[in-house]
Amino acid sequence: MNSRRSILGAALTGALTISHASARPPGAAAPPPAERRPSTRAALPLVVLDPGHGGADPGAIGAAGTMEKRIVLAIAQELRRRLEAGGRARVILTRNRDVFVPLAERVAIARRHEAALFLSIHADSAPAGHAGQARGASVYTLAETASDPFSAALARRENLADQAGGLRLPSVPPDVQRILLSLMRAETRQGSESVARQAVAAMQGDVPLLANPHRRAGFVVLKAPDVPSALVEVGFLSHPADEALLNRPAWRARVADSLTEGVYAYLGRRVVT
Ligand SMILES: [Zn+2]
Q: CB count, 10 Å around CB of 272?
């Protein structure tokens, strides 16, 4: 664990709470049995992969009936296999089967485990007016003001998956806590931007990309103040060509290969103090 995390974390203890943090739904990742892990393994950076939707929430449904929740789980599992095989990261999934996990709980899992990186994986429908045209992968980082109306609409709909989600900050935090929190957020934001850049660079040439593939919007699931976070749309199920590709295991493996490269590039550059 790096010292920044421990100092800021200790200073912020009690300052941050997450709604529903205690209500872990069945199937969500449980805290790791840390005492049973070999020490070399525990020292590896932890990547939390977050397959979107699940359970009663299918996510987008393509014209051929493909459900987003199934595609993104398959890709997350592929990605986990590759990252673990590389031996340079530990991996936790926010869900490993077809179960609903609230957005806030997804964020809470990453924070509870002090993850080095949180990567949410989606294959949504493009917002109305773009559904027939928009295709290709894109990567989103958190911003109060969206980079464009397309991304704003995407985040708005995605956030509906959990009406009550999100971080709940104390109403009047002490000044010192506010300053520490803003430092932490600034550093986390830099990490998130770096993850997104590496993911886009890794997919370039291998996977079709949406125009301006790195975009920003207010996704609830990206709001951890202390875990660099990005959301990857691996394609849009509203586009028949993307839907056909995402149904092919070989294609999903290709996407997972690219994302593995991006994650490793990010972890390699990460400054650990
Ligand atoms: Zn989605």
A: 11
